[in-house]
Amino acid sequence: MKACRIAILGATGAVGRTMLQVLEEQTDWEIGEVRLLASPRSAGQTLLFKGQPLTLEAVTETSFEGMDVVLGAVENELAKRWAPWIVKAGAVFVDNSSAFRLDPGVPLVIPQINAEDIFKHQGIIANPNCATIIALMAVAPIYRLSRITRMIVSTYQAVSGAGAAGLAELKRQIMELEAGKAATIETFPAQIAYNLIPQIGGFNEAGYSSEEMKLNDEGQKILHDPELRVSCTCVRVPVLRCHSESIYLETEAFLSLDEVRQALEEAEGVLLNEQPYPTPLDCTDQDLVEVGRLRRDLTCEKGIALWCCGDQLRKGAATNAVEIVREWWKSVQSSN
Ligand SMILES: NC(=O)c1ccc[n+]([C@@H]2O[C@H](COP(=O)([O-])OP(=O)(O)OC[C@H]3O[C@@H](n4cnc5c(N)ncnc54)[C@H](OP(=O)(O)O)[C@@H]3O)[C@@H](O)[C@H]2O)c1
Question: How large is the angle between the packed helices 130-143 and 210-222, nearest 10 degrees?
Fold first, then answer.
């Protein structure tokens, strides 16, 4: 099989560094040249890949030439700025920002759920929002037993979900407070140390934050179900890594907890953990979405409640993107 040449756009960030780590771990397909791109601030610095230093380059119009794939780990405006140049260079852009996720011409993919959509791409494939990936990995095995008509979700999202700056803010604020100083606030809308913030992104007219709407809008696209309804409350918590979610769902048909348990046990990429339950620390730096606290809802016959946790930098971002590339690359190579 031909080796796949991959550039990481935003290689120095929280997602970009995790992408490099996930690429290093790949064993059943060959990765050729790896090119690391970031801002001019990082140019000339190095990151290790398989023990060898790779030099970071400042991204330019010619950075994508000779690449098969570009993994995007930059914010929306940068993803939009560079996408035409990536497509022009003939590379496939697998983007982690939300810039293209709801574009009808761009597949939005979780390979364990809708891998077939990958092959409809026209140069860009979008990686879903991290909380959406973790929730859908947990509920898609149930959805395959019976359509889910509505979901009510509360998220508990780690500070690294806001990138390297979010991680630094929690650590800095804890040190400031321990030293008797006031916490300085730069990245989050309020102090995150020893606190919870029920806001991720701006609010719409109905009072929902942009993060809260993603699970509804992206969930409909990934499950190919425009009737799906998800009402969400997203909360930033002072946890370094891994998003956790409390999910209540209603199915069209009555499902026994035994059949739900069996579906979750058989689902690829999911671990049913009822001994006693998953926590963010347990789920850090691994790819499984863990599900626990499975129980019947007390207010509705067809209602089921569960708790899930997943590493949002790995399965919620880098791993999912690399899985998309792997699936696409293997298929392209086997058809050549
Ligand atoms: N963090 C998560 O858990 C998560 C999960 C899913 C999706 N995402 C999405 O993934 C993307 C990256 O997030 P992140 O958390 O990794 O952010 P981050 O830690 O802030 O990293 C941002 C990256 O963008 C680069 N960058 C900034 N300005 C640039 C410029 N002018 N030209 C080129 N590169 C530039 C930075 O390079 P320098 O170091 O050179 O500034 C850095 O590599 C975002 O769209 C985010 O919404 C994040």
Answer: 40
